[in-house]
Write a structure and sequence with these properties.
There is one protein chain. By secondary structure, the chain is mainly beta. It has a domain of about 120 residues: Alpha-Beta Barrel (TIM Barrel). Helices cover about 5% and strands about 30% of the residues. It contains 4 helices and 36 strands. A 5-stranded antiparallel sheet has the order 1-14-13-12-11, with no helix packed on it. A 5-stranded antiparallel sheet has the order 2-10-9-8-7, with no helix packed on it. Strands 3-4-5-6 form a 4-stranded antiparallel sheet, with no helix packed on it. Strand 20 and strand 21 form a beta hairpin. The chain is globular. The N terminus is likely disordered.
Length: about 525
């Protein structure tokens, strides 16, 4: 069974549109579709804004999200296909034009596609994703200047497009295995659309939001390819963000204001909303992801290098807040790039700005791998030493506590272990800068470990590292809940880490900011 259309969380996911509440009219002819052609589009450049971050979708249907780096005009284009080892397989593409790209699974085959929309009379193209990490291209005809909205408005698990124009006729293209079916709708006036399944009936709805004091409307999608319209009242100027933040099924809306004040509307299955005030983490507009893989959407706040970066983890009882450090002004591209059912973030720094790739890990932690994309070289390109030296933000380049362990038979990784297996795993993944934590034992030996993890090393209850000896330290053991087997990893002492540094002269060790750690390690230098 094909998977449902997923909500895309890139910064270009929602465009401004307008509306007057209207009913669906008679069916129009389907848009023109030519025979499949190679995935290369070469029309003249229409007036279409480039995407502010890479396009994200699972274009090959393998359960891991991919990135399509689109350079408008003659700029180079690349596709990065996600892998289970947190790497990417690169492929060059040719778009050769300026478009507004729409990413979704329009034919319901379980693979995301790209609809390249050229405004006005410019040519338009549909690229269908294939299992072979490529695309099959075909021509489609839009003919007009629109502000497109993507959703599954009839609930058939195929993405649809609502083409809105304040000065022309509007229509919905309903996606299907053989192409689109066009249905006319009536839309007018300037509004901002907010798309989500607010009543959890399986069809996408459109909340037409009029900033300020203008009237607002909610169009509920139906399986009959009609909309049911009701009036709602927002009253105010906000940046709306959609997600299921309480995990009850219906999508919710967080109405964010630039002064940090906001309102959370919780969708209800009977069709209404329950609203309450909620102070934002920063003045910046948040973005949506499911970082911990619990099926409940979270909100992430990046304050553009000022302060106050946060993740609000959603849940039935409300948000659980955790501080993060992004360390700069980035455009986030969200996707599950390694297929572990947790959303990851590619922090894209436009132009010559540095980039970083964060993978969400167990325990609501993030692990990272180096990324240098300016100019965009494609994955697998070696990171130059001068690029390493120029980076001031460690989050994208340092394997904290030697990085996560290799996945166990159940697909789990464990962070902050400071173990040999973690070092070897992340060395193979490309890391050359590692951070380790140290504790001093009662007999003078120094163990790479976090305080508070004594039980994982087999120490008796009530015995701290300061009271323990090397002979008492066993393997680092984690997991084993239920009928699953525990995982055992090799502990490292300070002299073991020195041996690793000697064996790998291109590796550097970063110490914690605690001066006690510096004093501990200095004797081994």
């Amino acid at each position: 069974m094909p998977r449902p259309t997923r909500r895309r969380r890139s910064a270009a996911a929602v465009l401004a549109v307008g509306l007057a509440l209207g009913a669906v009219g008679a069916s129009l002819p389907a848009p023109v579709a030519a025979s499949p052609a190679r995935a290369t589009a070469r029309p003249q450049a229409p007036e279409a804004a480039p995407p502010p971050s890479p396009l994200v979708g699972d274009f090959d249907g393998d359960g891991r999200d991919d990135q399509l780096w689109y350079g408008p005009g003659a700029a180079p284009d690349h596709a990065w296909f996600g892998r289970g080892d947190r790497g990417f397989t690169g492929r060059a593409l040719t778009v050769a034009g300026a478009y507004l790209p729409l990413v979704a699974d329009f034919d319901g085959d379980g693979r995301d596609d790209v609809l390249w929309y050229g405004a006005g009379a410019a040519a338009d193209y549909l690229w269908l994703g294939t299992a072979g990490k490529g695309f099959v291209g075909r021509s489609v005809r839009v003919n007009g200047t629109y502000r497109p909205i993507v959703g599954d408005f009839d609930g058939d698990r195929r993405a649809d497009v609502l083409w809105y124009s304040p000065t022309a006729s509007d229509r919905v293209w309903y996606g299907g295995a053989g192409g689109f079916t066009s249905v006319k709708v009536s839309v007018a006036r300037e509004y901002t659309p907010v798309v989500g399944d607010f009543d959890a009936n399986g069809t996408s709805d459109v909340l037409w939001y009029g900033p300020g004091g203008r009237r607002d409307y909610l169009w509920r999608g139906t399986w009959a390819r009609t909309f049911w319209g009701v009036s709602v009242t927002v009253n105010g100027t906000y940046d709306p963000v959609v997600g299921d933040f309480d995990g009850d099924g219906p999508d919710d809306v967080y109405w964010h204001r630039g002064d940090r004040r906001g309102v959370l509307w919780s969708g209800r299955r009977w069709g209404g909303f329950v609203g309450r005030s909620r102070t934002g983490a920063t003045a910046a507009t948040p973005f949506v992801a499911d970082f911990d893989g619990d099926g409940v959407d979270d909100l992430a706040w990046n304050d553009s290098g000022i302060a106050g970066d946060r993740v609000w983890y959603g849940g039935p009882a409300g948000f659980a807040e955790r501080a993060i450090t992004v360390g700069g002004s980035f455009l986030p591209a969200v996707g599950d790039f390694d297929g572990d059912r947790r959303d990851d973030v590619f922090w894209f720094g436009p132009g010559d700005e540095r980039d970083a790739l964060w993978f969400a890990g167990p325990g609501r932690a993030f692990v990272s791998r180096p990324s240098a994309l300016d100019p965009l070289p494609g994955p697998g390109t070696a990171l130059r030493q001068d690029v390493w030296a120029s980076q001031m933000n460690p989050y994208g380049y340092v394997a904290h506590a030697l990085g996560p362990t290799p996945p166990d038979p159940y697909g789990r990784e464990f962070g902050y272990s400071n173990t040999l297996e973690a070092f070897e795993h992340n060395l193979a993944r490309g890391f050359r800068v590692f951070e380790a934590d140290f504790v001093r034992l009662a007999d003078g030996n120094v163990l790479a470990a976090h305080n508070g993890t004594e039980r994982r090393y087999g120490l008796p209850a009530g015995v701290s590292f300061r009271q323990a000896t090397r002979a008492q330290v066993g393997s680092y053991t984690v997991g084993g809940a239920g009928d699953q087997q525990p995982n055992h990893f090799t502990p490292l002492f300070a002299e073991d880490i020195v041996d690793l540094l000697i064996a790998h002269p291109d590796v550097s060790l970063v110490l914690d900011t605690k001066m006690a750690h510096v004093a501990i390690v200095r004797r081994f230098a």
